[in-house]
Amino acid sequence: xxxxxxxxxxxxxxxxxxxxxxxxxxxxxxxxxxxxxxxxxxxxxxxxxxxxxxxxxxxxxxxxxxxxxxxxxxxxxxxxxxxxxxxxxxxxxxx
Length: 95
What we know:
alpha+beta; about 40% helix; elongated
């Protein structure tokens, strides 16, 4: 059986900077306040800074693949069809 990963871990250190578009100039930055500490600790977003232009912001450590988007769409569609069928069956037995 083929195992499909819905999301993959990525390392934003090898991404382009959103400001200057340079490759591999990002490095991790420390949290400056409580809000940034909360976001850094409890979400998939981490704080990065560009060494070239000084941009500082959040980058996600997760990425969706094309196959994962198709799979997710299929599961949502399947859940919706199942909910409609269950609703009709319950409505038929209640009357």
